[in-house]
Write a structure and sequence with these properties.
It holds the Pfam family SLFN-g3_helicase. One of its GO terms (molecular function) is helicase activity. This is DNA/RNA helicase domain-containing protein. Keywords: ATP-binding, Helicase, Hydrolase, Nucleotide-binding. InterPro entries: AAA+_ATPase, P-loop_NTPase, SLFN_3-like_DNA/RNA_helicase. The protein contains 18 helices and 24 strands. It has 631 residues and is an alpha/beta fold. The chain is globular. The chain has a six-stranded mixed beta sheet, with helices on both faces. It has a six-stranded parallel beta sheet with strand order 12-11-13-14-10-15, sandwiched between helices. Strands 16-24-21-17-20 form a five-stranded parallel beta sheet. Helix 8 runs antiparallel to helix 10 (282-295) and helix 9 packs parallel to helix 10 (282-295). The chain folds into three domains: 2-219, no CATH class; 226-418, P-loop containing nucleotide triphosphate hydrolases (Rossmann fold, 3-Layer(aba) Sandwich), CATH 3.40.50.300; 424-630, no CATH class.
């Protein structure tokens, strides 16, 4: 969606009349049915006059076109400024200009990352050249009019009209050699570089004729390019990690058969609810669906509400591929507030139990939740769900709600169930045993030896066995406040167990990929950053929010020790009402204790709970002793 598409002369007049802000505001209200913040309005009135001056000095022909606030399809990102036209050789061109009001910056760790003042404090953000280049590459891979083999040549740059670089440009942070690759591909212009920017624009669009180019861009069909589809396919070829087994294959083919039967000329809509516990291979099915349907020219996106899980999936799939635009196929669950009805052929939502009522505070539509929006936006929507992984009061994506939301929109509902276990050593027995303990089902399930489960006596022992010996990750329930903020480069050690003189930080909030980053091995992951992920070995610290009462012979959830205020439901008023927090805490520990593919070691802060676990493990020990005697 493009908010403003006018000739360059009309744009200059709107600026000179000091009316450009009102025009943009009116267009946004009409096209998007929303308003803008005062800061956004201020950015227009500060930056756009700078561009108007440059275009006026360039003396462009009448039908050069200016496009403002181009919302990248199915994202929250918008291109500030684009100009279209032909050069003196007849080449059709479109130039992206990313506008910044920055005045200073610093070098930061990470590829393409810098520090600058945003929102009244210093923050890490992407380098302006990286940002403008990423928008260019996104359009080249998703807008049919701008594919890399298109007749329209797309280029990009950044203009920091308030920024005075250092006298010695070799010392300027934004021109540091670590950013050279991005600056070479997408040049950066500073406060007194307006003449150079003017000349570059003039060289690209001096002959006008931008009307048809702008029209092609605005009306360009949005779907992944052939090159991008081929890049995704190449990542799956020969990769055994994505092979479908048994009921995974059945679920996969079920989705494809429904997709092939869709009548795209009607409003026909289908919803597929795929139910499966931890380790049943839901993500493998979803990723295979995305890969195949991209090859069928379907418009499809892969949704994960959990940002950490989404980032790991991206890195796991992309690896060393040069097509970083594959990242754009993965979206958060709050991305579909304004998406038109049936805009996508298929939307695949993994970890759907983590869906929320609303996503961004500024984007609320009465009577809608994220499930509503996903179903509305696609002809075929596939939800992977597990009600027993609901771990927050804000999680709404339960099976019954998804089914209800689908029926409200006249979507035909299909249900598929997965049972086979591909995590936890393939041990369905371990899951049954864990359910028997955590949910007190009293089925008398005995733990066998298919999965490496151990109880340890101290958190230090957990660190030694999991981190140092198994190269695994530590996890913990939300029984400690999260204060973790880097101070002098060090994270505060929030997870404290005084009796063992143990203290360790939660995972670094600035490292979404903490679960696979080598610098994060001595950090503790919480439920919100680990759900959906899997490691070979995990060590779980069970805090005092889960305890065992020997008098009642039952596990109890201690509300006073549960520190996740945002996820905590209100305490029931009735004396005999069941506290909803009880199920959420049990679900949390089940989720944490099923992240390991080969093993899970546990330390319990509550001694009585540790005794209870040991008693439940006795049958395992007896079996092991009997086998040793036999041999």
């Amino acid at each position: 969606m493009i908010i403003y598409n006018e000739t360059s002369s009309r744009f200059i007049n709107h600026v000179l009349e000091r009316n450009i802000g009102n025009v943009l505001l009116t267009n946004i209200q009409e096209k998007m049915n929303r308003s803008v913040s005062p800061s956004e309005l201020l950015s227009w009135t500060n930056s756009l006059p700078q561009m108007a001056k440059i275009l006026r000095d360039a003396e462009l022909k009448e039908d050069t076109h200016v496009l403002l606030e181009y919302k990248l399809p199915s994202t929250e990102k918008r291109i500030d400024f684009m100009i279209t036209g032909e050069d003196n050789k007849g080449q059709q061109n479109a130039v992206i200009v990313e506008l910044k009001q920055w005045q200073e910056s610093k070098i930061a760790h990470g590829d393409g990352i810098v520090k600058t003042f945003l929102g009244k404090r210093e923050r890490e953000t992407v380098h302006p050249s990286y940002q403008s280049l990423s928008y260019k590459r996104y359009l080249e891979n998703f807008n049919e009019a701008l594919y890399q083999d298109s007749s329209i040549n797309l280029s990009s740059c950044a203009y920091l009209h308030n920024y005075m670089p250092t006298r010695n440009r070799e010392e300027e942070p934004l021109l540091n050699k670590r950013y050279a690759t991005y600056v070479e591909q997408s040049p950066i212009y500073f406060q007194f570089d307006d003449k150079q920017l003017m000349q570059m624009i003039k060289d690209c669009v001096s002959e006008g004729k931008g009307t048809e180019i702008a029209k092609q861009i605005e009306e360009g069909k949005i779907k992944p390019s052939k090159k991008l589809v081929e890049a995704v396919n190449s990542l799956f070829e020969g990769n055994e990690e994505f092979i479908l087994l048994d009921e995974q294959k059945v679920a996969y083919e079920k989705v494809l058969s429904i997709y092939r039967s869709l009548d795209l000329a009607t409003d026909e809509k289908h919803t597929i609810l795929i139910k499966g516990g931890p380790g049943t291979g839901k993500s493998v099915i979803g990723l295979n669906l995305m890969n195949f349907l991209l090859g069928e020219n379907a418009t499809i996106e892969y949704i994960t509400p959990n940002q950490a899980f989404r980032e790991i999936l991206r890195k796991k799939l992309i690896g060393t591929s040069e097509f970083v635009e594959i990242r754009s196929l993965f979206k958060g669950s709050a991305s579909y507030v304004e998406t038109p009805n049936n805009y996508f052929n298929v939307l695949v939502c993994d970890e759907a139990h983590r869906l929320k009522n609303q996503g961004h505070m500024k984007k609320k539509i009465e009577g809608e939740n994220q499930a509503t929006q996903i179903i509305r936006s696609s002809r075929l929507n596939v939800f992977f769900i597990d009600d027993e992984q609901v771990i927050s009061n804000k999680d709404i994506g339960r099976f019954d709600l998804l089914k209800e939301e689908a029926l409200k929109q006249n979507s035909v509902v299909h249900v598929v169930e997965l049972h086979s276990q591909f995590r936890c050593g393939g041990s369905g027995n371990y899951l049954d045993w864990l359910n028997d303990i955590l949910y007190e089902q009293h089925q008398g399930v005995l733990l066998d030896r298919d999965f490496d489960f151990q109880l340890v006596d101290s958190p230090q022992e957990l660190v030694e066995k999991i981190v140092h010996e198994k190269n695994g990750r530590l996890l913990a329930g939300y029984a400690w406040d999260w204060i973790t903020k880097p101070v002098n480069g060090q994270l505060s050690k929030d997870v404290v167990i005084e009796e063992h003189d143990f203290a360790m930080p939660w995972n670094d909030p600035n490292r979404i990929d903490w679960a696979i980053h080598p610098d994060c091995s001595l950090q503790i992951g919480c439920i919100h950053t680990v759900q959906g992920l899997e490691m070979e070995y995990v060590g779980v610290i069970i805090g005092n929010d889960l305890s065992f009462n020997p008098e009642t012979n039952a596990i109890e959830v201690k509300r006073e020790h549960y520190k996740d205020k945002g996820a905590r439901p209100a305490k029931p008023k009735g004396k005999y009402e069941i506290d909803p927090l009880d199920k959420l805490v049990r679900n949390t520990y089940k989720t944490l204790m099923t992240r390991g593919m080969k093993g899970c070691y546990v330390y319990c802060c509550d001694k009585e709970l540790a005794k209870h676990f040991k008693q439940k493990m006795q049958a395992y020990d007896i079996t092991r002793i009997d086998e040793e005697i036999k041999y």
